[in-house]
Amino acid sequence: MSRKEQVLSFIREKRGEWVSGESLSREFKISRTAIWKHIRRLREEGYGIESSPKKGYLFRTASRMLLPNEIREGLETTVFGKGEIFYFKEIDSTNTRAKDLAIKGALEGTLIISETQSGGRGRMGRDWFSPAQEGIYVSLILRPNISPVEAPKITLLTAVAVAEALLSLTRLDISIKWPNDILINRKKIAGILTELSTELDLISYVVVGVGLNANTSQFPPDIRGEATSVFLETGEYFSRVRFLREYLKQHEKYYDISKKIGFGPVIDRWRELADIIGRRIKVRMLDSQYTGVVEDIDENGELIIKGDEGGYQRVFSGDVTLE
Ligand code: BTN
Asked: 286 pLDDT exceeds 80?
């Protein structure tokens, strides 16, 4: 723990009580000016700390920024987010940085977080709207022991984890749109971008990027009709830190289940949350489109569609519109 973090935890534990500059300076054997510099830095990081020449310092509120220490505080996982957390005020794309780090050997569970992205990427070459401090832009490095054809399962698993986290923290009516959009009232609230690198028949790493519209208050005109945020749906500020902790917990839980007993329970939960089976859909793929009724989703996450002209089609990637 750095000295600044030690000062923070000292005044934090005294919640509601003033701590004099002198006692801090004695505790940490540094000057009162040095203490003041740490406090100033903590305030810049968004911590609510009052100061008074007579009484000293009073911890009031935790930072709302996605600071690694805030995320670690009370994080109920064993691997995800327990190792390295790379935190940026701004970055081009957390997924791009995660891939660089994965190539250099970053371990499973490593997190890359940014307050904003200048080149946030979505599926099918789209951009991801990433306003500063409003959304969550996070990438997680995984090293699953599965073959590349099974990789779509990781996206389904992530969608279940994001949906579960939202369900446990809000009363919103969350659903999943195949393969990886999280919706509220038919509007998109979160998306997942999974990227992987393979060697022969093995996955060397998977980067799972999640973008969540947490406190976004306004969207650009081109997506305004189809996007929403937790804040817009509830009218209340949504704690990004709490969400991140809950998402990591859910993700690790389902990931462990999939390793121990397979993807069956994940797919079952996905089916419950997705509300797509039996629905008529249109799927746009890169160079074709297909219309039919969804019969099922198989254990690899592929949609099985009964086509309008008869016959069945398996679809593993594309854009779905419910009809
Ligand atoms: C989609 O629905 O099209 C996927 C959106 C994924 C966005 C996230 S934000 C964090 C990570 N970094 C990126 O550049 N993209 C993903």
From this structure: no
Instruction: Return the best residue to mutate from 66, 91, 137, 196 for the ligand 1 pocket (most ligand atoms within 8 A of CB).
Output: 137
Q: Which residue's alpha carbon is at the smallest distance from atom 16 of ligand 1?
A: 209
pLDDT at 99: 98
Residues 253 and 177 in one domain: yes
> Residue 280 and residue 137: Cα distance in Å, rounded?
32
Structural domains in the chain (count)? 3
Domain hosting 296: range is: 280-322
Q: Is the separation of the CB atoms in 51 and 40 below 8 Å?
A: no
- Flag whether pLDDT at 161 surpasses 90: yes
SS (H, E, C) 63-99: CCCCCHHHHHCCCCCCCCCCCCEEEECCECCHHHHHH
- CATH number, position 294: 2.30.30.100
The residues lining ligand 1, judged by C-beta closer than 6 Å to any ligand atom, are 93-95, 117, 120-123, 126, 128, 137-139, 181, 191-193, 209-211
End-to-end CA distance of the chain: 55
Residues sharing a CB contact under 8 Å with residue 33, sequence separation 6 or more, in sequence order: none
